[in-house]
Amino acid sequence: MNADFYNEMYDADGNLRAHYEGFADWLAATSPERLASKRAEADTAFHRLGITFAVYGEKSGTERLIPFDIIPRIIPATEWTALQAGLWQRVKALNAFLHDIYHDQEILAAGHIPAEQVLNNAQFRREMIGVDLPAGIYAHIAGVDIVRAGAGESYVLEDNLRVPSGVSYMLEDRKMMMRLFPELFSRHMIAPVQHYPDMLLENLRTVAPRGVSDPTVVVLTPGAYNSAYFEHSFLAQQMGVELVEGRDLFVKEQAVFMRTTQGPQRVDVIYRRIDDDFLDPLAFNKESMLGVPGLLGAYQAGNVNLANAIGAGVADDKSIYPYVPEMIRFYLGEEPTLHNVPTWMLRKPDDLKYVLAHLPELVVKEVHGAGGYGMLVGPASTKAEIEDFRARILAAPEKYIAQPTLALSNCPTFVESGVAPRHLDLRPFVLSGKSVGMVPGGLTRVALREGSLVVNSSQGGGTKDTWVLEN
């Protein structure tokens, strides 16, 4: 055990943390052979269910199973209560910011955020200026990435407000753990997560256009070749709503309809899993075959609602991230209870100078990057990789931010060599509609390679079940 990293299960002296005591007793009494057998059983079941994701550009094939670790990440009730409050605070402020920048732009006028950082942002959609949305909500589903570092402090690593994914793995991981180890669930009071699809559907129904009492909700997918298609079909099935592609919908008289065998059916709320650029070829990317011609006009007219909103991405852009604490103070009049990771903005000359002098120590990210791509992890990079990235930064410094290399917490994980610590993060999912809510837990992602700090599934990471204890 490396004392340099916060361990979720053991304290710095090697003593077991109280909330892991019951699990540790079970683990000590369970043979490595049984653990290996159960892991193989889980892999077989996930393959059979088709729980895979696509990795673009891989020669070995497009489909890959996300590795599942059978040792859960356990969070005590008191810690979860504090984390949940911080997440609600943050998402409320982000929604207030999005409403403001598309309406009165008070935070820009007050000088708390440089106007050009927002108005010239690639994710800012001028088409949304003045558009009123039900309940003023833009980010109906937010996936907020939380890391624990140092002595155990929690930090927000990033906010995902466009089309955040991963909740299906949270649900399937829980289902798998209950199937493999039912005796563990009789020993622990573990808060349930299985009701997430019901919460999601109810949340979407509450933000239907005005006057609609029994809204029709659909999930809009780019299609079977999308990396998260399993999740799209899974959530549609779990909510009991139609999974549609752009060709299944059409717009008539600024209203959206779905083609059915009984004829056209009006659609009120679209949970879209397609990026802004591809939603409407008449308004955005004219080459898009994925969207619905005329969708933007129906949306602007208030005849259909989209989750998440067009233009929500400006609030999760990494160049806007450093300003979220100021948003919380400005809109809510509160101090942030969850903290950002210290961030250098390379468009600032002093920040750029510092980062260029300390590249081997830092993590540098593209402001529009995602999935672990387009980033430099200084301590894990070669001199040649660092110099190549230096040239990219110098060519366009405004496209990058930098952060310290965090000593991410680790948790015992069942790997080929047995049980060993691996680094992880947590993505809880916050639902915003007429109210804010979430299920207790989230998607724990774990870096399965020894020493790796990159947890993304596209970079070899896996997932764990996340247990929030109820007492």
Automatic annotation (TrEMBL):
SUPFAM superfamilies for the chain: Glutathione synthetase ATP-binding domain-like
Record-annotated Circularly permuted ATP-grasp type domain positions: 72-447
Pfam families: CP_ATPgrasp_2
InterPro entries: ATP-dep_Glu-Cys_Ligase-2, CP_ATPgrasp_2, UCP005522
Protein name: Circularly permuted ATP-grasp type 2 domain-containing protein
Lineage: Bacteria, Pseudomonadati, Pseudomonadota, Betaproteobacteria, Candidatus Accumulibacter
